[in-house]
Amino acid sequence: MSGKKEISRRTFLNYALMGTGGFLAAGMITPMIRFAIDPLLKHSAGGDKVAVGNADEFGPEPKRIDFKVHTKDGWYESETTMAAWVRKTEEGEILALSPVCKHLGCTVDWNTNPDGTKDQYFCPCHLGRYAINGENILGTPPLKPLDEYEVEVKEGKVYLGKVIPNPRQGVAG
Ligand code: FES
Prior knowledge:
Layout: H1 9-44, E1 50-54, E2 63-73, E3 76-88, E4 94-97, E5 109-110, E6 121-123, E7 128-130, E8 148-154, E9 157-164
This protein binds FE2/S2 (inorganic) cluster.
């Protein structure tokens, strides 16, 4: 005897079949897994912006814009109507504010304060007030400024993206 372990023809065939089967199974299962999780991967990479008008439509006075956003969450697709208050700032930048009050989520309006205070956003739910660039007016219920949208101006058109925190501070009314 040589001392080496001999491998029988049957054992060799079993190994060969198992290897081939495993290779084929991996080839079939990998695309299935990829297909199953692909929408989830795509969702996390999102961030599309939506055109809401021409830049020259906006001046120093806030203008309310309603627009639709197509959302794809995994396999679920939907259309959501969003709103923004859009204006051109003193620096010539487009600023788009979310109308969602930072107190308890009601919708703010421009220049509707019943006490006649002008040039402010007003929240009718608990009399919250914000200045023209979204700064919360100190002494009113909201403790943070209105959120803003990511803005991109390309070839004269205004595109809005995600809602992001507004870095401005509260101001005295
Ligand atoms: S929800 Fe706007 S002030 Fe309370």
